[in-house]
Amino acid sequence: MALARISCNKVFRGTISQMSLNHRYAHAIKAQALYSTTTQDERTNAGSGGTVISERRGVVMLIGINRPEVRNAVNQETAHRLTEELSAFDQDNNLKVAVLHGVGGNFCAGYDLKELAQSAGSLKLEQDVCRGPGPMGPSRLRLSKPLIAAVSGFAVAGGLELALLADLRVVEESSVMGVFCRRFGVPLIDGGTVRLPQLIGLSRALDLILTGRPVKAQEALTFGLANRVVPDGQALQVALELAEQVSSFPQRCLRADRNSAYHAVFDATSFTQAMQYEMDHGIPVIQAEAITGATKFNSGTGRGGTFTSSKL
Question: How far is Cα 215 from Cα 156, in angstroms, rounded to an integer?
Answer without folding.
Answer: 9
